[in-house]
Design brief:
The structure holds two protein chains of two kinds. Among the domains of chain A are: 28 residues; 189 residues, no CATH class. Chain A is built from 41 helices and three strands. The longest helix of chain A is centred in the C-terminal third of the chain and has 26 residues. Chain A is elongated, with a radius of gyration of 37 Å. Chain B has three domains: 133 residues, Beta-Lactamase (2-Layer Sandwich), CATH 3.30.450.60; 142 residues, Mu homology domain, subdomain B (Immunoglobulin-like, Sandwich), CATH 2.60.40.1170; 112 residues, Immunoglobulin-like (Sandwich), CATH 2.60.40.1170. In chain B, the strands form five sheets. In chain B, strands 8, 9, 11, 14, 17, 19, 20, 21, 23 and 25 form a ten-stranded mixed β-sheet that branches. Chain B has a five-stranded antiparallel β-sheet with strand order 2-1-5-4-3, with helices on both faces. Chain B has a four-stranded antiparallel β-sheet with strand order 12-13-10-24, with no helix packed on it. In chain B, a hairpin with a 5-residue loop joins β15 and β16. In chain B, 17% of the residues lie in helices and 42% in strands. The two termini of chain B are 51 Å apart. The chains are: A mainly alpha, B alpha+beta. Chains A and B meet through α2, α3, α5, α7 and α10 of A and β2, β4, α2, α3 and α4 of B. Chain A: InterPro entries: AP_beta (IPR026739), ARM-like (IPR011989), ARM-type_fold (IPR016024), Clathrin/coatomer_adapt-like_N (IPR002553). Chain A: It is a peripheral membrane protein. Chain A: Pfam families: Adaptin_N. Chain A: This is AP-3 complex subunit beta.
């Protein structure tokens, strides 16, 4: 098939005597590639001809060429020079051409504002087109022309279109207002505000979605605007667009913290007074508790559960954030959001960049309460297809989830990873996680120490960075119980000369040996003797530690000296070694080393040995492994998240004294009676049945008078703005109105059918009955 | 707030760019800015104080999507938008995967789609049916030629060109007949067809303990894709036989209304064209009986035995392919064998294979046992080999593989045993005889067997 097509294509291409138009028609019909070749042949000379042609097809070919030039970053044709030719097509009959001109204007209008203004007239004319998509496009194009003198005109058109009968246009109004706001800022607040209020009260979920976006970007502080809509929005949450769902959750978190009473926590094991939900997620002092939510907050939290099946990762994470900010770990666990988050992390069809962000969120929750994900720890074992970043975050999560019961599995898994993984940064993270496992019990600690020693000394050609990290883990483990691990220290000291170690590994070993002076003084002098000749070749950190080791050794030697004579630095071997180190350090490049040398020199020269003992032999506290984050003080910066992730999880404070606010639903603006068609009610009618049923199931929600904000059927006729709108329309334009009436009548039958349908579609036979009614329709037509 | 969107191949050659303002940098300018940084390999690079460049690699053909945008409240938004854009392109062009050529040929459509999706620098529309309405897709001759074989007789009968093209006809009135926001109004097809594709990917880590395998960690990641070419506004009822899996945490397309039976019965008014109906994950380690855990791994199980033979230095890999009437053959079976570090002089020697051939690798830590395109079900391929020590150290301890990675795919049944019970269509125009197709595809993703 493909071959025959190629033959046809080549036949057409060889037909040189065909006119340009005929060739274009023929080859463009044949397939994209041949059309692309034809399109490529359009150059700077022939482009104006096409753009100015009387034939729509030629104009379209010309515009397609312009689009592909813009898209490919190709600068062989200067598109600015054809500005007028292109923009004059804004009045084309073909909507696609108009769209393409609009794309062009978006990018180039600012380069040529005077010419761009010429197009305004035809754009404004299409604002009253009968097709709502065209009206919306006109509004969009108008506002995309980024010229300050246009703003009053746009604002004027918006005031007219904000009550347009089509939700597509009203959505566009919200987006256009956002554009204006981004340009003009707070100065046009008085103009925008009434329109925003009307958009927020819209009955169409798609308009509410756009209005919420405008609200979040422009007036996020004006939460009081939402009082009357709060309950209705909770019920239509799952009908909004996915992006709007995430935005609404974000807005409502802020709203709940500002205006809703704080939840109370009651200890179920005793009769103590209920306390307020603590600011931080993990600070509830009772082992078993119940949380009592305000019923409006409960309404929001239960409406979130409808979103647990969302395929959108952003929505799932937003839902989890809402539970994290507004509720307790218990509610978080009961809500089922844990499963939804886990589903995202194991899915094979979600790209790794998104998985990584989901894992970062899980890491934040784990830090607050490890018990949330503890039973699912196996889900965080590394998989071969995981990227480096995913692996690192999984390891961090594992290091938090590790406990007595799962330690065995996790350690085994980590050992396997250490043996097969190639990436250095993952291996470093593995050693960090192991050090956390080692803190679980002394049994694990000794097992991990011997395993680490094995790994380091078996001559595997692994990265030096990894060796350094393993040595550091080893050092911190040994320090916990020095006497038990003398043999390990001896092995480590041998590594100083046998292995080619990084400075970041060498310096800690030398430091560790210095700490061992009191425990086992016999090892150190020999190590120091071997280090001194290499002094000048070492890294600054290592040099500093060598000097410290010499000083510690000397200080210990002085303390343990029991002779009658005063200790003489000049004659003792250790004293001489110290002098040598001092001599080397005094001429060091590094300021730090010289400074330390001077300080130590003056202490020992003036024979202030007590000070030296205090300074150099003080017992050091045992370091907590670096990964054991934030048990008490919650600090996200230790987790190494992306910066915007950190901002995202900043905890909002609860308002200590929320103002009394009235959340009785306010009037909804329903434009559906103005529409050409009524059939969408069959869908929303069906959903309304569902909504009024749903609250009955959960006792907490049923207390809300649900029908006042869900069913708006009865109210449609009472709306005042309806009459106003019609009088407005008839004054403005009479022809489209007549058109409307005709279509309205012709479709009214349909409405009756669909209304019946929504009434009967509660039982199982709904599909059957609707099938019957649709066939009736067929016959009546 | 988005400033520009770019698509490149994995070598950063520009395929398509879309700039939302006149000040937005072209990809060339941007490239020179991030050229010096290693961090360009990261998914997010900060360009200036409040501008970041987000990157997402998609699909086997490794298209890279880039978005330059101002930091917004939600850290997932830019990545999510890039994923949505990719999904929209897939659904819009109705393809399994996108090629660079397809994108270059359709630069105008890519721009128009983005023009509709982004407004005021924010995400406005992401629904693919709505986008197809705004940017109508004109089916070219090749589409007709492709479908001609099947429907030649039908196509000739209907002389009307609109029906000839077999594509939904966009009417001027947008809302006329639109029942649900996600479905294009007034779809008309000559052949009413609905295809349901169930895909499952096995991700599992197993350990060989003696002669038996134990599951360390595993999950099945499943997806239900639907291709729907139905006239009017039909309602579809899809009943699944879930074989005891709860599927509670599934992700569902917004069109799905759950019945009393949960995910097992889904009622929906489908969007037109291609879409993902549901995604689910089955945690294998949560299944309580050990035997059931292993049966849910699918048709192919691999075991690894070592320390065999006269010198106790041989290993044997045995692939047990279960028998099934629904599956014709296993496709693209490959087993990658990983060895611990072996010295340079040692040699991997294959003693015997019943199927396929051995491909060694320069890295010395792995080799691949590659099978033919198709392997019959019910067969038990075996490979036996050893790592020969160099002559200088003949008595070194024998080396055995540390783990195996298995990859394969087959059609016909799913590892979890989930099947479609019925697809019931209602509200179709009278007289239409819809065609319903169901396809099951299984794949091995991260399937590891450790020694």
């Amino acid at each position: 098939m493909a071959e025959s097509m190629q033959r046809i294509a080549s036949a057409f291409e060889s037909a040189r005597d065909l006119t340009l138009e005929a060739a274009a028609v023929a080859s463009s019909r044949l397939g994209e590639s041949s059309y692309f070749h034809y399109s490529k042949s359009i150059d700077s000379e022939s482009l104006p001809g096409l753009l100015n042609s009387r034939y729509t097809r030629e104009v379209r070919d010309g515009m397609k060429r312009v689009m592909s030039l813009m898209g490919s970053g190709d600068s062989s044709i200067e598109l600015e020079t054809h500005f007028a030719d292109i923009v004059k097509n804004i009045g084309s009959d073909d909507v696609k051409v108009r769209r393409m001109v609009s794309v062009y204007l978006l990018r180039y209008a600012e380069t040529n504002p005077n010419l761009a203004l010429l197009s305004i007239n035809s754009i404004q004319r299409s604002l009253s087109d009968s097709n709502p998509d065209v009206r919306a496009l006109a509004l969009k194009t108008l506002s995309d022309i980024n010229i300050a003198s246009l703003y009053p005109i746009i604002l004027h058109s918006l005031k007219k279109t904000v009550i347009d009968s089509s939700e597509v246009v009203r959505c566009q109004v919200a987006m256009t207002l956002l554009k204006l706001f981004k340009e003009q800022g707070i100065s046009i607040k008085d103009d925008v505000m009434p329109m925003l209020k009307s958009l927020l009260a819209d009955s169409e979920p798609s308009v509410v979605s756009a209005a919420l976006l405008l609200f979040q970007k422009a007036f996020a502080q004006e939460l009081q605007l939402l009082h009357g809509h709060y309950r209705r929005y909770c019920s239509i949450l799952n009908q909004l667009t996915e992006n709007a769902q995430a935005i609404m959750i974000d807005i409502f978190i802020a709203y709940a913290k500002e205006y809703l009473p704080r939840p109370m926590v009651r200890d179920t094991s005793s009769d103590a007074e209920a306390i307020q939900l603590p600011d931080s997620f993990n600070q509830i002092p009772f082992p078993v508790y119940d949380v009592e939510y305000d019923h409006d907050l409960n309404l929001f939290l239960s409406s979130l559960k409808k979103l647990l099946h969302s395929p959108n990762a952003m929505v799932i994470v937003a839902v989890s954030k809402a539970f994290y900010q507004l509720s307790s770990p218990k509610t978080f666990k009961d809500s089922g959001i844990v499963d939804s988050l886990l589903r995202l992390t194991v899915s094979s069809y979600i790209c790794s960049e998104i998985k990584e962000l989901v894992l970062q969120s899980i890491l934040v929750y784990c830090c607050s309460d490890p018990s949330l994900f503890r039973s699912h720890y196996k889900r965080f074992f590394l998989m071969p297809s995981d990227t480096e970043n995913i692996s690192i975050f999984k390891l961090k999560i594992l290091s938090i989830l590790v406990s007595d019961s799962n330690c065995k599995h996790i350690v085994n898994e980590l050992k396997f990873v250490a043996g097969t993984e190639q990436s250095a940064s993952i291996l470093v993270e593995v050693s960090n996680t192991l050090s956390v496992c080692a803190q679980i019990s002394s049994k694990w600690s000794s097992q991990i120490i011997s395993w680490l020693l094995d790994r380091i000394s078996s001559n595997t050609p692994i990265d030096k960075e990894v060796t350094a990290s393993q040595i550091n883990v080893l050092r911190s483990l040994i320090q916990k119980d020095p006497i038990k691990h003398i043999a390990t220290v001896v092995k480590l000291s041998k590594m100083l000369s046998n292995h080619d170690l990084l400075p970041s590994a060498k310096a800690p070993i030398i430091w560790l040996l210095g700490e061992y002076v009191q425990v086992e003084p016999r090892i150190c002098p020999d190590v120091l003797r071997r280090l001194l000749p290499q002094f000048s070749k070492e890294h600054a950190h290592v040099r500093l530690q060598i000097l410290n080791l010499a000083a510690k050794l000397l200080s210990h030697d002085v303390d343990s000296y029991s002779g009658d004579m005063e200790y003489d630095i000049g004659t003792s071997r250790i004293g001489q070694m110290f002098e040598a180190a001092l001599q080397l350090a005094k001429f060091d490049d590094e300021y730090d080393v010289r400074d330390r040398a001077r300080m130590l020199a003056s202490i020992f020269e003036q024979k202030r040995y007590e000070i030296a003992t205090l300074l150099l032999q003080a017992p050091k506290p045992y370091p907590m492994a670096s990964l054991n984050y934030c048990r008490d003080s919650f600090n996200l910066s230790a987790l190494n998240l992306y910066p915007d992730m950190e901002n995202y999880y900043e905890l909002l404070p609860w308002n200590a004294d929320p103002q009394a606010s009235d959340r009785t639903p306010c009037e909804v603006k329903d434009y559906s009676k103005l529409k050409n068609s009524f059939s969408s009610s069959s869908y929303f009618g069906r959903n309304e049945v569902e909504f009024t049923n749903k609250p009955k199931r959960s006792a907490s929600v049923s207390s809300v008078p649900s029908n006042t904000f869900t069913s708006s059927h009865g109210k449609k006729y009472q709306l005042q703005s309806l009459d106003e709108f019609f009088s407005d329309v008839s004054a403005r334009q009479s022809v489209p109105k007549a058109k409307r009436v005709i279509i309205e009548e012709s479709t009214s039958e349909e409405t009756d059918h669909t209304d019946d349908e929504s009434g009967s579609s509660s039982g199982d036979e709904s599909t059957e009955s609707s099938y019957v009614s649709s066939s009736e329709e067929e016959t009546t037509e | 707030m988005y400033t520009s969107i770019y698509i490149t191949d994995s070598k950063k050659n520009l395929v398509f760019e879309y700039l939302l303002t006149s000040q937005a940098p072209t990809f060339q300018q941007l490239c020179s800015k991030i050229a010096g940084r290693d961090a360009a390999m990261d998914a997010m690079v900060a360009i200036s104080k409040d501008m970041s460049l987000y990157r997402q690699a998609v699909g086997p053909e490794k298209l890279w999507y880039w978005a330059l945008c101002q930091a917004c409240g939600d850290p997932l938004e830019p990545q999510m938008f890039l994923a949505q854009y990719h999904q929209v392109l897939i659904e819009y062009f109705d393809k399994e995967a996108l090629t660079v050529k397809k994108l270059v040929n359709n630069a105008d459509r890519l721009a128009l789609l983005l023009h509709a999706m982004l407004d005021a620098g924010e995400v406005a529309v992401t629904d693919s049916n709505r986008l197809r309405q705004l940017v109508p897709l004109r089916n070219d001759l090749s589409t007709i030629l492709n479908s001609a074989t099947k429907t030649l007789a039908n196509t000739v009968k209907y002389a009307d060109s609109k029906q000839l093209f077999g594509a939904p006809v966009a009417t001027g009135k947008v809302e006329a007949g639109q029942t649900v926001p996600w479905r294009t109004a007034d779809c008309r097809y000559v052949n009413n067809e609905i295809y349901v594709d169930l895909v499952e990917t096995v991700n599992a880590t197993l350990r060989q303990k003696g002669s038996s395998l134990t599951l360390i960690n595993g999950s099945l990641s499943g997806k239900i894709d639907v291709k729907c070419y139905l006239s009017g506004n039909p309602t579809v009822q899809l009943k699944l036989r879930t074989s005891g899996h709860p599927l509670d945490n599934s992700a569902l397309h917004r069109c799905v209304e759950l019945g009393e039976a949960g995910v097992a019965t889904m009622n929906f008014v489908p969007p037109d064209g291609r879409f993902t109906l549901a995604e689910y994950a089955i945690d294998l380690s949560a299944i309580s009986q050990a035997a059931r855990r292993l049966t849910n791994l699918g048709l192919v199980t691999v075991s690894l035995a070592s320390g065999l033979g006269q010198h106790r230095d041989e290993f044997e890999i045995k692939v047990i392919i279960g028998n099934s009437t629904q599956v014709a053959a296993i496709e693209d079976l490959r087993i990658t064998v990983y060895f611990p570090d072996i010295s340079d002089a040692a040699k991997i020697k294959i003693l015997r294979t019943t199927h396929g051939g051995w491909e060694s690798d320069l890295s010395r830590v792995r080799g691949v046992w590659a099978f033919d395109k198709q392997t019959a079900v019910g067969s038990v391929p075996v490979l036996r080999g050893c790592v020969e020590n160099p002559e200088s150290t003949p008595h070194a301890p024998p080396v055995f593989p540390s783990h195996l990675a298995v990859s394969y795919s087959h059609v016909g049944q799913l590892p979890s045993g989930i099947r479609v019970d019925t697809i019931a269509l209602s509200d179709l125009p009278p007289g239409s005889k819809p065609f319903k197709g169901v396809k099951y595809t299984s794949r091995a993703g991260d399937y590891i067997v450790r020694a």
